[in-house]
Structures are given as C-alpha cells and as structure tokens.
Amino acid sequence: MADEEVDPYPVPRPSATSRPDPGPGADASGEREAGHVERDLVSSPAGTLGTDAPLSIGPLPKGPGAFDDHRPPAAELVADCVHCGFCLPACPTYVLWGEEMDSPRGRIYLMNEGLGGEPMTDSMVGHIDACLGCMACVTACPSGVQYDRLIEATRAQVERRHRRPPADRALREAIFALFPYPRRLRLMRGPLRLYQRTGISGRLRKSAALQRISPTLAAMESLAPPLGKPERVPERTAAQGHRRGTVGLLLGCVQREFFPGVNTATARVLSAEGFDVIAPPSQGCCGALSSHNGREEEAQRFARAFIEQFERTDVEHVVVNSAGCGSAMKDYVHLLSDDPEWAARAAAMSAKIRDVSEILAEVGAVATRHPLDVTIAYHDACHLGHAQGIRAQPRELLHGIPGLELREIADGDICCGSAGVYNILNPEPARELGDLKARNVLATGAELLVTANPGCLMQVASSIERAGGRVALAHTVEVLDASIRGLPPASLGVPNPRAAADGAALQPNP
C-alpha cells in the first residue's frame, strides 16, 4: 500500500460559521440538493501545495456570456495561472473556508469560464465579492500571475452587468456616497465625537446587542476611531535646513478626517528631511476606493480631478501615507490607458507617486533621530507590502530610531480583514481575520502596533478591543515624527485608546 501523500503546508480549516452563503440549491444545512449542478462544485486536490493537476467541474449552464467587450479580464493573463496551489495558504478566504472557488486559482478558473461564454451567475459574483483584494497571492505566485489586474477587471464587469439584491445595492450606494467625500465625512465628526463622549458606544459593544441586530451596523460602529480635535495641514510647509526638493501631499478622505494627525506628522517629517510640502486643501478623493471595488467610471473621474489638481503644482513627487491610495494612484497609468486625452498625463502622475516610507528611505535621513524606548510590532498593510512591494523601507526607517525594538507578527502576510470597505460589506469573515490578527499582535508583547493604512488601524483597534488586549496604535510616520521631535512614547497613544475613550477598563496583554 503506497504511503499517503502529506501536505507539508496544511491550511487551517475554519468553523462552519465563517463559510459563505452556499447559494441557490442549498438547503438549511448548507448541503446542495441532489442533482443540483453549480459552477463551484469542484473536484480537485485543493490544499496540497505544489499540485498542478487540472481542476474538474460538473456541467455548466449556458446563457449570455459573463463579460462584455470593455476591458474583460485578459485571456493571456488568465493563461499565466498553472494552478500550482502556491497561492492557497496565502489567500485569507481560502484559509478561512478551504473552498477552491474562494482561492485565487479558483477565481481565475471562473474568469476563464466567463471568457468562454459562461454566464455571470450569483455564485460566480459571490466568489468574486468574497475576495479581499489583498494581493497576497501576487507575492506568493511563482509564475508572476497578475491577479491584481484580473480581479479589478472582473469586478468592473460585475458592477456593470450584475444586479445585486436591493439591500446590498443600498449599502454600497451609501458607502460610496460618503467615504470618498472629505466634506461629507467632516459633517459626521461632530455627531460621532459627541456619541463617543457619552459612553454609549462602549456599552453597545459590551452588550453585543448591535452585533445581534445587524453585523454590518456593528462593524461600522466598532471601526470608528476615537476622535479628537481636527488638525489641518498648511497649504505649504517650508523645508528645514538644506532644501532637497518639493513634494505634494495626498490628504486623503478617511485619513484627513479620522486620522488627521497622520497628515500633520507627514508634513513635519518631510519638512525636517528638507522638503517643501504642498498640500492643496481643495484636493478630493484619489479614486482608490472606487477603483478597488469595480466602479471604473467613478474612479476615473476622481483620478482626472486629482491629476489636474496636482498638475498645477510644481512638485517632483506626490507623497502618500495611505497604502490603498498609493497602490491605486500608481495604477493611474492603467486606469486611464484607454483615454487618449488622459493616458499620458496619467502615466506621468503614476511615475510621481511615492509612499512616504519609500521616499524617505530613497533619499536617506538627515534629521536627527532621538531615542524612543518602545517595543513595536509592525503590520504590513496589504496594499503596501503586496500591491506596492514596499516592505523593507518602513522597517529600515524604524530600525534607524535609537532605543526602538521591532518585533515581527506571526502570519504577518495574512490580511487583517479591513481591505477598504470589505469589513463593512463582509463583516463576519472580516471579524474572523481581525481576531486572528489581534491574537498574533498581542502575542508579540509589543507596546505599540505600527502600520501604514487607516483602514488597518481601525480594523486592528476594533479587534484588539474585542480580545481585551492592551496596545497603542500608530502610523509609521507618527513614530518617525515623535523621534525627530524628541517626544516620549506616551505621545504615540495610550494603551487601547478606544477603550480609554469609552471609560472601559484596560487589561494586560495575555
């Protein structure tokens, strides 16, 4: 009897509660009716790393093709996938559910079926919607499959060609009527700050009543960071010492209104490093949220307005301190490639985009770093580490601070569950991923969690609170700013700031 092959990299299987809706044809237990054929009934050696056996699937229904002729997922990019399976343990939804069609290679298989004329079913859309877009598979893939291009093209097709249920449509329209508009977010600050000061938010979370009523509302409520006084970045911040150049600064939407201290810290650090900083107050959304969710025309409108705004400034680079925004702005070259008027302008703007850690590492430090005696855990934001390939630079900058100790997080490449607005649209799997990330962060014993994306800060703060943990949170540039200014670690926040804002008791790290 031959020895049984053992997977050297087993993928954990989740609890049943985390599984996606099984879709049409399933009974109350989640099992499919006898004889029901669905495109995600796959027989394959999924979960075995390195397997390149072809996927097999039952008969597929015929009907109108899934994709139209406007930028469908490129067949040549689909063909790059050899179904090797290296993406499986890197994919958050495959780690949660162990479902082949909720892995990158499974979704690519569905794209290929769509290109072959198969219809866009609710099941296909469900698997595409379940993807966080974290791009961990892009990092893991030995074949260089451009899954980022494929998933964004497919999502744009879904948004144009698929009719969602009314409740889902209403939620998405509400999200995109609010989050890309800084002025609208600003109007929320006053009521939200008052709500937080009453202590109602803490009592709601402790009771879990909102979670039972609506996981979506509970997710939105728990993600709101504690709000302080608004801070505004001057339109021009002069360089200190020897001038090394002029850069623009993306102010962002959520970053500008909910994490304004990150922007002011970014301007101070760039100034201390010899840059004039131009931050036009009238700038709008960069289009990242729309682009990552398949709202192509909307993303293009935002991108054109942003490009036009910064073309009027004499800047050598545009500096970004939000990972998701940076990845989208570097992709303007593709977003507007079909527009004869804007293609060259978009390519020129894409070439100017730099993450703040990227440009600081590129030019080298001139400002003095004062000691900062603190232990930190660094979390790679997915759109910084995977989408932009920026991992070494933030660590290099943090290691340059005397007294600072950096600790790595177990399973650091797995997404925290934020993923733009994924944690609002898919609160239950996002919560599971956030809880996993919180446990791993707390296991480091670090006093401070550092990352480079506002969504990650909100998601992990909420998860750490649920875990009863104790850790402060800060953006990478805030740590650099504290060191340059000679501030103490306490300036970077109190343990579990959300709990402190609600008057809740703090608990020590496990």
Please give a quick description of this structure.
The chain is an alpha/beta fold and 510 residues long. It is built from 26 helices and eleven strands.
Spatial extent as radius of gyration = 23 Å
Strand arrangement in the largest pleated sheet: 3-5-4-6-7
End-to-end Cα distance: 47 Å
Mean pLDDT: 83
Number of domains: 3
Explain what this protein looks like in three dimensions.
- The protein is an alpha/beta fold.
- The protein has three domains: about 15-25 and about 35-160, Fumarate Reductase Iron-sulfur Protein, Chain B, domain 2 (Orthogonal Bundle); about 235-360, Rossmann fold, CATH 3.40.50; about 365-500, Rossmann fold.
- The protein contains 26 helices and eleven strands.
- A five-stranded mixed β-sheet has the order 3-5-4-6-7. It has a four-stranded parallel β-sheet with strand order 9-8-10-11.
- Helix 24 links the parallel strand 10 (about 450) and strand 11.
- Mean pLDDT is about 85; it is low at about 1-20, about 20-65 and about 495-510.
Write the layout of secondary structure elements.
Blueprint: E1 42-43, E2 56-57, H1 75-78, H2 92-97, H3 104-115, H4 122-130, H5 136-140, H6 147-161, H7 166-178, H8 182-198, H9 200-207, H10 209-213, H11 215-223, E3 236-237, E4 245-249, H12 254-258, H13 260-272, E5 275-278, H14 288-292, H15 296-311, E6 317-320, H16 323-330, H17 332-335, H18 343-352, E7 353-355, H19 356-363, E8 374-378, H20 382-385, H21 392-399, E9 404-407, H22 422-425, H23 427-443, E10 448-451, H24 454-466, E11 472-475, H25 476-485, H26 497-502
Parallel strand pairs: 4-5, 4-6, 6-7, 8-9, 8-10, 10-11
Antiparallel strand pairs: 1-2, 3-5
Helix pairs in contact: 3-6, 13-25, 19-21, 23-24
